[in-house]
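FIELD: query
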Amino acid sequence: MKIELDEKQKILFWKTAIAFQAIEGLETSDELMDIARQNIVGEISARKAVNLAKKIDKENHANVVAARMFEILSQTPQAAGLLNEFSPNASKVQKKAHEFLSQETLQNIHHKLFEGILENAGEYRKKNIAKREWALDGELLVYPEAKNIASSLKKLFSQEKKFSFENLKKPEIAEHIANFISELWQIHPFEKYNTQTVAIFLIKYLEHFGFASSNETLARKPVYFRNSLVRSAYSDEKKIKADKIYFEQLLQNLLCGAKNKLNYKTIHIKYDEDGVAIKVEDSKKKKRVGSKKADSKKSDSVKAKKERKTRETGVRIKLDDEKNIASKPAQKNEKPKKVIAKKSEEIAKSSEDKTPYIPNDTKVARLCKNAQIECNEKVEKILEYLFENKSITNSQARTIAETSTETARKILAKLSENEIVEAQGVNKNRIYLLK
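FIELD: result
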């Protein structure tokens, strides 16, 4: 029996689908927002939304992938909220969950999301891969060899089928799921877009136990989601240990209604649990960092905090304004935002320590000095990302520097002016390449 989603559930799934494009630095367009609203109010189906999204996509494919994610998320009865508690004891539930746990399921999700975008959509990677990760302070994360992918997945799914959730409390379930999904992500079976695929797999797996994803944890924290998985996958002999606590805390919020503070900055090995930089050599600089944080807290209004949370996720749908999403296009009102941002900036600037900012990264310091650019924490984060990835979009810069779109745009414009980066493309498709 087909069960229709209500507007609230549709909004949640659209938020989640759009938010997870930020993981790849992709930004959906205003046209997709109009398509989402048509679907939410019942004017078009999920399939129609996908077809319309294909027509507006040009290069980055963010729109069609988001629409496909929404379509997958909206396909099961559990998604309609029939159940909102785990039911691990029921034999039918257990059987369906076991059927879902297969390599074919994972491959089908990847294929549905990226068909026509990747030549090898749904196929395991044939090359060994590694990537330098921001959360590891630039350390290289090496993924398992390609030749072992099939056997590793077979073993992992077999172990999960044997596991019993019977009589477990929700925190224990969260811990187990954290371990299982972390191991699945670490295998990195596909050449690209593993995190988005695993995120959808996680949501669908939980639904098989009767858990409807009824809160916005994943929609609000896509960047945290990926970086927490990075930290769960990496260890070395010197200073870094694999740590699943970050991902487990996210699942505690998702499954148990916990209130863990999920600040993606704390995942970085340079930051403490409050998101304050640890690797600071100058005592005056320590004082300035702490002072800036305290002053920022005092100057932030409630509205400014909500705006900052929205920027962190890269979500274009306002997370605190569901009624406007369902009923009409969001009305742009830039003036109040500018006033709030300006006042906060003035207060923070007036209370700043006059000590010149000294970058932690010597390469950043040298570049800023040679180009005569005034460096700050935001500029340093953006330059570090550019050194590692060779290119950046305005959306990525905004998320990494934890700042506004306007500030990120100004920083990138300054770097372009000083011939450090080269801008290519126009408007939302613009990308900045490191020279």
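FIELD: remark
The two ends are 57 Å apart (CA to CA).
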